[in-house]
Amino acid sequence: xxxxxxxxxxxxxxxxxxxxxxxxxxxxxxxxxxxxxxxxxxxxxxxxxxxxxxxxxxxxxxxxxxxxxxxxxxxxxxxxxxxxxxxxxxxxxxxxxxxxxxxxxxxxxxxxxxxxxxxxxxxxxx
Length: 126
Prior knowledge:
- The chain is an alpha+beta fold.
- It has a single domain (4-114), classed as Threonyl-tRNA Synthetase, Chain A, domain 2.
- It is built from four helices and four strands, in the order H-E-E-H-H-H-E-E.
- The chain has a four-stranded antiparallel sheet.
- A hairpin with a 6-residue loop joins strand 3 (94-101) and strand 4 (108-114).
- It is elongated and about 50 Å long.
- The chain starts with a helix and ends in a 12-residue tail after the last strand.
């Protein structure tokens, strides 16, 4: 059985790999946080150069909305791929998936609601 930190680290690696394969470019930084039955993944530096250019050249609202819509559709379409990855690492099934991305900072948030809080062993005291 892994510690909470080991589970979070494995999620970070898996999500970084997933974004790299899906978008052709991985995030600059990934953090995962287990909070009971919630798994929050925060990725920074996820916008591709083409996305950054499109957001900057289209009218503000249209560019932002279009990018958010495309990224959300990609994440929903990828759910069947993500479910076994997250389940394999946490031992819990995904109940729901929530996603958002900032077109200003390139920060992307994915929140997984799990069917149960993952079991993990406590970190050994030093």
